[in-house]
Amino acid sequence: MILGSSPSRGILAFQFKANTIEILHRNQMPNTVLDMICASSKGFDDDCLVACGFGDSSIVGLFRENIPVCTEMRSDQIFRGCTGIWMLREYNSDKHHSILAVSFVKSTILLRLVGESLFEDITDFYGVDLRRRTLAIENTEAGSFLIQVCPDRVIICKSNVGQVAGEVLADWKRDLDTGGADLDFFSAAIINDHVFALRSGFIEIFQCRTTRGAPSVILSLQLAMPPCTSSFAVYPLGTSGPPNPQKYCFGFIVAASYNEEICLWNVYFDDGSNRVDQICTYVLEDCDFAVNEMQFFKDAYGARLALGGRDGRLIVLGVKQEEDSVSIRPLASVHAGKRPVQLSRTRLSGLSACIFALSGQASLLDETEDGVFSLTPVLHRADHLVRWSVLNSNESLFRFVVVEHESMGTFTTSLQVTPRIEAFLDVCCARFIMHRPQQGQLIVVSSPGRSEQESFISSGSWANNAPAVEVYGLNDEELLFKSVLATGDIVTCAALLGDSGFIIIGLQIQNVGQVRILKIPPNFIDRNARRRQSLPSQQLSRGGVSQLIFSCDAGFPHKVNAVSVVDVVNDGEFRVLVAAGSELHLIEVNTVAESMDFLLTECWRSDILAVSVDPESRLVAVSTCRGGLDIFSLLTNQANIELAQQWSSSSSVLIGRLLWNDGFLIGSDRRGFIHFIHAGSFKKSTVALDDIPCALSIRRKTKSLLVSTITGAIVEIGLPVPQEHVDSVN
């Protein structure tokens, strides 16, 4: 039995027999489907489970063969953003699966299937890490143990159901003192008690041993590869492998993709030694084909390597293992849709001759006896999520980027500013800049850097090294006033509400996210009395010190990464999107009543980097730390408010800033590229800078883009013509 999801959040359970599809169940799920698995439990040959992660809570649904109903379990609101589900055995000797592992963005729980349709929480009886997201979890080959892979650790724990709380029996954790916190895993696989975990530039391989009841986790090998490696797959060779079958205990083929190349390694493990051989490099005939996901599978005709492309294509390669080498040959290339292809994990169906591709269109790929591949469309899927995270959220430094060969040239002309502004930017990185054209003001919201990459910042040149809001007059290029925020606060994002003078600032105070709203007074102090002041924001003056309206930290347990204003409801009342961790909140703010009402909450599978709303078209652009970009329509009516997905682009490029202007979406990444995307055709062009951008703003008078860079400069770039598609940059 196989599961599939549709754009209307419907679930189909169907069987694939003799080239025909028989629909078994059809159910409507409350929100978007994120993961699906099939397994066998006691009394049932096929259990199909589906995880829904968006919305106010996560939902796990259970389908069973010959039972035309779906048993649903809804989590508390603290468990949002389901990222994966796994079926496990309670004891190694069990023939059926009875444990359900559910991973969320910030936690993991374990459930036991009781009877035909009941779930029992047994998390406390295992030693799994409950406070982290799970990348992979499986039973060990010997003994009643579980292997859990988290972004920064690998653990082995034992079941003690019905007795005392479980404990961790073996634990490998990255050394935080050596900067390992920046090198978290973002995908993993567990095969034959071996953990394969992908991080920046490496696939790390762990051996999980349970010799004589004493588990251990050993980092055995590291496969070095370019940092742009986007995906990998592992194929087990069995308990012996060449060149000496009597010597080697385990053998694997590891495949990794970067650019248009597919590299394969032979990996062998012995009790006394380990061996890695790079055996083959296969160059795809189409150099424009970018791999989104890859998966090994085996059928009656041998080993196959499926490559899901970002352009909707699906390529199948034949992999033949010989005595001392591996050969690769292309077998098929089919179109699975127009959106990036996601391939099912092997635990999704139990089928050997078929691949279930999850993309804009879900299809079954079948190989016939004469070696012909056919693709059978089954259903459509509305959402697309890429499975990898590449962000150090504390410092907004990006890793694992792929160099794109689509630059349209460099357009960087210096903006003439006074030495006074340049000196300020040398002291503190201008994280956010905003332009008020009617007042002729440039607003700079800054925050001291803390990373080694920003070591050029001089804390001694700025009082207490505190963040601040400064307003400059562009006509006379002079500082109008400066408002210093509390020392120790870290500015993470900022937005200006039109020309009303309200500034919304996202702050990180220790580990808590906070939103602070400030008001710039309409009248400034007399020009002759202007001084470079440094006054607390709470201190009011007849001059121009900004007034703190109110602040709110309720509902933001995670760092606030992005804020974007949607529209103005009434005078002093507006709606804003706030991205905190992996959650996106639509909030109605009333500055008169000093209140915040949460209207909508959506949860992603990874932290959100940037959010921007086009007030005219109501298009919402969201970029996450898994790479790529999603564009939604914000639909509002008297009944409800929802996000309807319009376009999705999968990429390893991380967009850190987003901005809408005249039908174009403008984004920047930390490689030094500015991306222009047309909202109608979604065509894209790229401009290369000589520096790393920090903030974006539109200068209406000259119809240009202002970019502040990490070195303290401000760059001006010409904008595309709104009437034309983005195939060139003016």
Automatic annotation (TrEMBL):
Pfam families in UniProt: Beta-prop_RSE1_2nd (PF23726)
Entry-linked SUPFAM superfamilies? WD40 repeat-like
Q: Which domain of life is it from?
A: Eukaryota
Q: Which residues form the RSE1/DDB1/CPSF1 second beta-propeller domain?
A: 79-397
Mind telling me what this protein is named?
RSE1/DDB1/CPSF1 second beta-propeller domain-containing protein
**Species annotation:** Paramicrosporidium saccamoebae
Print the organism lineage: Eukaryota, Fungi, Fungi incertae sedis, Cryptomycota, Cryptomycota incertae sedis
